[in-house]
Amino acid sequence: MSKTTSLFSALLCTFIWGTTFIAQDTGMDDIGPFTFNAVRFFVGFLAIIPLAILFEVKKFRLEFKIDLKTFLVLSFLIGVSLFLGSALQQVALLYTDVANAAFFTIFYVPMVPIIIYFYRRKSLHWSVWPSVILCLIGGYLLTNFQDATVRLGDSLVILGALFWSSHIIFTGIIVTKYNLPLTLGAIQTLIVALLSFIIGLIYEEFVIRNIMNEIDSILYAGILSGGFAFVLQIYAQKNITPAPAAIIFSLEGVFATIAAWFLLNQLLGINNLLGCFFILCGVLLSQLLPLMKKTI
User: Fold this and answer.
1) Is residue 83 part of a domain?
2) pLDDT at position 121 over 90
3) Range of the domain at 275
């Protein structure tokens, strides 16, 4: 797979994530956050598993002969990270607005290179740091955070950003060892669905009629975001290291803003446009500056 294909996969993944923010918020009118995530990710699992069986059964057997234990451990860590990140983000939307949630979710952008730098002792290209700053400034401008009130949910989103960071890092590790993106996508969505279902049974009520009332949001968030977008993330990280990948994924704030303007008729102010510009500059810097060094 070429880096161009990986970049396209990352952008398409990010577009789906950004537009799903609206479905996540509107999909909890009649059901709880864990019920929403349980059904959403189970739908994602059902969408991916036929493709995994069709295209990766032979590779699945070959890869498992190499190191089954490592694959299972990394798959579990990725699934738990995805569960904690998505659960905290979903619950936080009950206590804060989409603007705050979108801004604080972008905190995984600086968290990824910091974690890699201190715990894996891996050197990073210097362009990562100015790119991170530009993305954070852009996220701040996108969400009009200066007009919002800090709520309890904001701390949940920041904690969730830590697990989004670990999910990106663990994904970066496993894609260098195994070429099973569909299988990994199916496993992680099933883990999230099962864990969400268990907690949902304890604290919420599963009412089929209420779930069907949110079926449009569930199908979009499940099939596209919970299913294929996370598979696209795995494809993307085949040729993009975790820190630059996190910067590209921060474009979800831009896509979320554009989707809100298009679907909800929310006008874009000068701050929003500047936010889009800063994040776009951050993404371009993270990708172009390392290439300049190679061509000189």
Assistant:
1) yes
2) no
3) 3-290
